[in-house]
Amino acid sequence: MALTQPGRVRQLAVLSVGFPGTVFCANPKQRELSWYMLFFQHPEAEALLAADDWALMRQLLGKNSSEAKVQDYIDALSQPGALTAGLSWYRANLDLAALAATKPTLPPAKLNMLVMGMWSDGEAYLTEEGMTASRDVVTGGLFFYKRIEGAGHWMMRDAPAKVNAALADFVGVGLDPDVSMYADLM
Questions:
Q1: Distance of alpha carbon 66 from its chain centroid, rounded?
Q2: Which residues contact 86 (CB under 8 A, 6 or more apart)?
Q3: Could you tell me what percent of the chain has a pLDDT over 90?
Q4: Is 32 helix (H, G, I), strand (E, B) or coil?
Q5: How far is CA 141 from CA 79, 90, 176, in A?
Q6: 50-75: b (≥16 Cβ within 10 Å) or e
Q7: Cβ–Cβ contacts within 10 Å for residue 177, how many?
Q8: H-helix or E-strand containing 78?
Q9: I need a surface site. Which of 10, 27, 104, 168 has the fewest CB within 10 A?
Q10: What is the pLDDT of residues 45-85, one digit of tens each?
């Protein structure tokens, strides 16, 4: 919406995943990490993930999560329709051309609004470069970057106080016309 209806968006906060046209080509490592997105397109993905007491899902989620957190996720995904709903997000949003791109696909015009990209240092599926490359999509001086320490792929769950504090600070930036005072976030 920020790209297609910029007049309706004053500020944009993006967590974990950078701009779609820059994420995959920012670092070849990202393509390796993103193989699961292709797997999720397969019509048998649900059955394969749940097979053998969720063995594959446990392996995927266990990269940077405790056994207790993995079990929480599996308990939630075991509810009727929950796994299909989660996979449907990937099925609706994966752009194969973006996944195969070797050069950034930038929008015709840069975003001329405050944008904060937030990435966590324990992220196992998305590279930091994929987020920081989003700076190229935003008018100079309006992109802020925040690295959340001690959190994994679901930073909102792993470090809610840090994420919420960063979001609150960012909203404060938008209320102050002198964004230069927030240079430490840039």
A1: 20
A2: 77
A3: 47
A4: helix
A5: 45, 32, 14
A6: beeebeebbebbeebbeeebbeebbe
A7: 5
A8: none
A9: 168
A10: 999 999 999 999 999 887 777 899 899 999 999 999 999 99
